[in-house]
Amino acid sequence: MKFTLAVIAAFAALASAKPVQMREATAQDHVEAPENNSLIAGTPISAQFESLRFFEDVNFGGQAISISGSNNQCSNLVGFWNDRASSIQNQGGSTCIVYIDSNCSGSTIVFGPSTQISSLPSGWNDQASSYQCF
């Protein structure tokens, strides 16, 4: 009898528990705009240009990040993703340029709409630092 009451009490506690609130990821979680540009705080990551995906390993393997944001805005990859990508997909309709240096400078690779590179060329593996889409 005591066991049954304990089980009922446990289920009642679980049923009345408040669900954990998840916040939507924003572009600021993954990238940083140079000082002359700014990301809009709270803008959903999927809000503006379509997804540009960076993969840690070749052949679209390892950890991945999908980034969406404002067209015509240079953004830096920061933290884990700076100098980390080995393969990249442009899954949207915009043309995106990936730069080897921050603040959209240095050598570039251009990704037309819906294009991908499963293994970045020599000199580019783990080198991408910024991007801009149009």
Structure description:
Keywords: Signal. InterPro entries: G_crystallin-like. Residues 1-17 form the signal peptide. It holds the Pfam family Inhibitor_I36. The chain is mainly β. The protein has a single domain (24-133), classed as Sandwich (Gamma-B Crystallin, domain 1). The protein contains one helix and nine strands; from the N terminus they run αβββββββββ. It has one helix at residues 2-16; strands at residues 31-32, 52-57, 61-67, 75-77, 87-90, 96-101, 105-111, 116-117, 130-133. β6 and β7 form a beta hairpin. Mean pLDDT is 76; it is low at 9-47.
Briefly note the structural class of the backbone.
mainly beta
Mean pLDDT level: 76
**Subunit organisation of the chains:** single chain
End-to-end distance: 69 Å
Low-confidence stretches: 9-47
| Number of DSSP helical runs | 1
CATH architecture: Sandwich
Number of domains: 1
Short summary:
The chain is mainly β.
Which helices and strands, and how do they pair?
Layout: H1 2-16, E1 31-32, E2 52-57, E3 61-67, E4 75-77, E5 87-90, E6 96-101, E7 105-111, E8 116-117, E9 130-133
Antiparallel strand pairs: 1-4, 2-3, 2-5, 4-9, 5-8, 6-7, 6-9
Main features:
Gamma-B Crystallin, domain 1, 134 residues, 5-stranded antiparallel beta sheet, signal, G_crystallin-like
